[in-house]
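Hi D.,

Good news: the full-assembly prediction came through. Inputs first.
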Amino acid sequence: MARGRPPAHTREQVVDAAIGIADVEGLAAVTMRRIAQDIGAGAMSLYTYVPDKDHLVDLMVDRVGGTVTPVPITGDWRTDLLALAGSQRALMRAHPWLPAALPNRRLIGRNMLTYLEQGLAALDPTGLPAPVKLEIIALITGLVATFVTAELAGSAPAPEQVALIGEAVAGGGLPHLAAALAEGAQGSGPPGEPDFDRLAGWTITGLVTQALSS
Amino acid sequence: MARGRPPAHTREQVVDAAIGIADVEGLAAVTMRRIAQDIGAGAMSLYTYVPDKDHLVDLMVDRVGGTVTPVPITGDWRTDLLALAGSQRALMRAHPWLPAALPNRRLIGRNMLTYLEQGLAALDPTGLPAPVKLEIIALITGLVATFVTAELAGSAPAPEQVALIGEAVAGGGLPHLAAALAEGAQGSGPPGEPDFDRLAGWTITGLVTQALSS
DNA sequence: CTATTTCCAGTACGACGTACGATAATTGCG
DNA sequence: CGCAATTATCGTACGTCGTACTGGAAATAG
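Then the structure:
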């Protein structure tokens, strides 16, 4: 049994090395040569374990999806969905490349399916039709990705942008924006951490409530 | 005045050519050489008009943002936000590369600012604090991008995925997913077009309502 | 042992973004 | 007019990417 030369590495090793690089240096730093170097292999050897780079990214997504600790299902959809969103957010913050890599990915692998399963379980008490449940899950995922992307971009809007905005506002024709800036300038600092729970809570509660009442 | 050799093209020509390519063949097909070929220039000539490719994508985003017909402000936030979301959706469907290009972009240029202005105007009657208004606008944009991405991916889940899902479900351990599939299989066909208005309406109404009541 | 199977990895190709530098076109000054 | 100064054009070239190809290395089956 097991004829031929035995593999020197495993698919998981390759995927984990890619994830490690992406976590620290970003998705753009993940190249086949770089991965090979990290695990001590020739660049072309990777193609024994992975068909191509695109598929590798799919595998990366699915693998980190398997690292989330499953959230407990209490039976209260609001609590459970919020917990699910929170665990997703934690995942995306631990792997900042994830929000960017997520769109346009075929959800290959079981881990993405177990995420769906959890979402469906959380929404079970609502009694909504299955397609609506799936839509709500997709929307929540998108919301979390949007939020985390904004979060990771940092609240510092870069000096060049401040200049641009100030200039445009001074040029006139944007009264509400000018008012918002003025209000923001004299307002308090950033509200801090609980922003996510607040916004996600609003969206989840609002979305499900509306869905139930229609 | 205007010393030196006169430019043979304009920045707008370059950006428009890039948009034209992206619309038809996707963002990946937008290369400097390809753009140059389309407008009849040498590849390096483009750098007279654009500092680098990354900036070019910024310009593409801002330029298509200027093509949206401004939505009328009725004073009813629900109607106005829904119209704004609808116009964004139309824009993203006309330029399918937009949802993918949008994240991680500095919002350079006035067109993005006028979009913000419109959102703020729509939210004006709510009397919410300015930062909350901006958060809501960002969330709605993210929602539209998520929805359109899903829309453009097509409702056909590709045979390989169907096989994967079926297999995983048959393996057990995913009861809610199995139930959802069963329910979906015997259910009616796709609800069709009004999906967007329905989902966006739920989210917008729910989000703003929740924000107002807290 | 030999044959077979499997994996390893060097070389190489085409495409990418773009730095560099020679060349061309235009204006201002004499 | 000619001649510098200025600005745009674009061919060439470099380093990097994904990956096709290929010959060699390491294991098992007989």
